[in-house]
Amino acid sequence: MLRMRADRLVSLVLLLRQRGRLTAETLARELEVSTRTVLRDIEALSAAGVPVYAERGRHGGFALLPGFRTELTGLNHDEALALLAAGSARGERAFGLGAALASAMRKVVDALPADHREGASDAAQRLLVDPETDLLARRSATDQVPAAALAEVRRAVLAGRKLRIHYAATDQPPRWRTVDPIGLVTVRDRGYLLATRAGADRTYRLSRIAAAEELAEPAERPETVDLDRIWRERSARFRFDGEHHVTALVRVRPARREELVDTALAVRAMEPDADGWARLEVTFQDARHAEWALWELGADGEAVAPRSLRASLHQRAAALASRYDDAP
User: Fold this and answer.
1) Are 264 and 224 in contact (CB under 8 A)?
2) Pairing, β 266-269 against β 200-205
3) What is the pLDDT of residues 302-325, one digit of tens each?
4) Dihedral sign (CA 64, 21, 33, 99)
């Protein structure tokens, strides 16, 4: 708890050094705390001799006396981890390290020479990696995981200890289970816990973990791990061993082919049709997944087989047509 507050005080000083005068509301938003906590932190800094002063009025706020510098502590464990995880696509969001990453980057910027600091800040404003929406304003589906549960999962994975999770499998009520965690993986903003349970391989969707508890008992797992290999092996088993998977023969306009492929578990290309449409054999997670993927294509795709998929799409289209049967 004391370390957490110390990190926050350092971040508060860095924010004021780098951005000048800031209101209590802005500081609270940046540090993800209440304004009352910010005011208490300001008082603690003043009592410790840090020259923070308040400016009243419409454009007021808190600022440091000009020229103030102090030696600040280095990166903590989560901040260093956040910088490593940030190398993957929005890893800081999937693993709950966003706040740590922001704190770490403030320290990195502060460590730069004064003549480079402004240039680095300007450059950062001109680079945007993997935004939340695309050009059609479609939002990416990022998993939402309780912060406390995710922190417990992360600690158990890194410490090599057993983990209890309150997990809700598909179409099942949540229940507690004890696992041996191996690693964390994020794929297209969806996070997964790779683990074993009673010696058997298990893969858990992080968004389905409602609560977690790190145990004192060491996890039963090898000392070294190749997560990339394990993920490939488990993905292959998932694609081809699922009892609910649906394989469909699909026709699709070439311009929409990649959109369909991105949603599929497996794809096998076949000879294109005479009209230039691509013909694919596509494996989906289940019938609902297949129906959704084909429906998204609209008139640019067609399910040739199985007949059950064609029937469900027909029923869905007929229901929509009847809703608008009074249209001119």
Assistant:
1) no
2) unpaired
3) 999 999 999 999 999 999 999 998
4) negative
